[in-house]
Amino acid sequence: MAAQIISGTEISKKIREELVNEIETLKQQHNITPGLAAVLVGEDAASKVYVGQKEKACRKLGIDSYRRDLPGDTSEADLLALVAELNKDPRVHGILVQLPLPKHISAERVIYAIDPDKDVDCFHPVNVGKMMIGKARFLPCTPHGIMELLRRSEIPTEGKHAVVVGRSNIVGKPIANLMLQPHPGGNATVTVCHTGSRDLVTYTRMADILIVAVGRPRAITADMVKEGVVVIDVGVNRIGKTPEGKPILAGDVDFDAVREKAAAITPVPGGVGPMTITMLMKNTLKAAKGSL
Length: 292
Ligand code: GUN
Known about the structure:
The chain is an alpha/beta fold. The chain has helices at residues 8-30, 45-61, 76-88, 107-113, 125-132, 141-152, 172-180, 200-204, 255-258, 272-290; strands spanning 4-5, 35-41, 64-70, 94-97, 161-165, 189-193, 209-212, 230-233, 237-241, 247-250, 264-265. The strands form three sheets. It has a six-stranded parallel β-sheet with strand order 1-11-8-7-5-6. The protein has a three-stranded parallel β-sheet with strand order 3-2-4, sandwiched between helices. A two-stranded antiparallel sheet has the order 9-10. It is globular and about 50 Å long.
């Protein structure tokens, strides 16, 4: 079977076009420009790239970006003071503190300090709780991106068996929750597998929709899936460098082999990745509208 390739690049482009129009309308009708503050602590190379991509997306969409780069030895108190300042700043509708933070800073305390109305990552426990009970104000960016990929690719989810591999707070737990909510695009039967699961393959072979976020290159092989599965690959693993020094990326799924059995599959790169930043922009717009 030739799998449908679910292009996050294409779907993301379409959503960004919609956002540009909505942002323009907000400016014209209410004189409000959405603003996103991105805080980066330290010199982590991957985090620098991600924050740079978020800044660039803001510029392209007409969102004001307030980037704050702090040295790696910044104290937790100083970071909390910055968050408090951003909470008060009316130009800033969304705040994201890039994770991971240096070890001497408690990510939990910093996340708790962000005003839930500005928590565009949807990491604050108030927002996580609201999502759990189906009353979300924001949805977390990667899981929201996955839901949009499924919805816009017209993949039926109702009554399907969705198997999530990975139980992180950022992807596994929230996507499992969103897939089981009784709304269109959800209403699936959900199984969550993790490092403590025995006999993983028994579950992955039962999946109608397989969502993988484990952070190990090509961990899901063709023998682990059934014919006709829909595969969403959240992994972005650097497996080497090109002669020009560019990173070579692989997903958590053995794409070339699994696409032969799948009905639809996301590539890496160009699948879930572009959707995450697009959903961050969508949340920032939502936060700005919420400030009206
Ligand atoms: N680090 C890796 N992914 C994310 C994300 O979605 N948001 C933030 N703030 N940090 C991250």
